[in-house]
C-alpha cells in the first residue's frame, strides 16, 4: 500500500508537469501528451498495486473461513 501511495504521488507530479497551464516543456503538445500518457499509465499501475494485496487478503480470509 505504501508503494501504491508513492507511485500515485509520482504519477500526480508527472501529470502536473503535463498540464496545459504549465510551461515546463514549452508549447510542444506532443511532449505533453507523452508526459500525460506516462502519468496515466502510472495511475493504472498504482491501482493494480493496490488491488493485489486486497485480493490476497480476501483470498486468505475466504480460504481460512
From TrEMBL:
Cell compartments where the protein resides: Cell junction, Tight junction; Cell membrane
The keyword Nucleotidyltransferase is assigned to this record: no
Transmembrane segments: 34-58
InterPro entries, per the entry: Claudin, PMP22/EMP/MP20/Claudin
Entry keywords, A to Z: Cell junction, Cell membrane, Membrane, Signal, Tight junction, Transmembrane, Transmembrane helix
Membrane association type: Multi-pass membrane protein
Pfam families (UniProt xref): PMP22_Claudin
Keyword presence, Transmembrane helix: yes
Cellular component, GO, one term: bicellular tight junction
Main subcellular location: other
Signal sequence region: 1-18
One function term, GO molecular function aspect: structural molecule activity
Similarity section: Belongs to the claudin family.
Stated name of the protein: Uncharacterized protein
Amino acid at each position: 500500500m505504501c508503494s501504491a501511495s508513492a507511485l500515485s504521488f509520482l504519477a500526480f507530479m508527472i501529470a502536473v508537469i503535463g498540464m496545459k497551464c504549465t510551461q515546463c516543456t514549452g508549447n510542444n503538445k506532443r511532449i505533453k501528451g507523452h508526459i500525460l500518457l506516462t502519468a496515466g499509465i502510472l495511475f493504472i499501475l498504482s491501482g493494480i498495486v493496490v488491488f493485489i494485496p486486497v485480493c490476497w487478503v480476501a483470498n486468505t480470509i475466504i480460504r481460512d473461513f
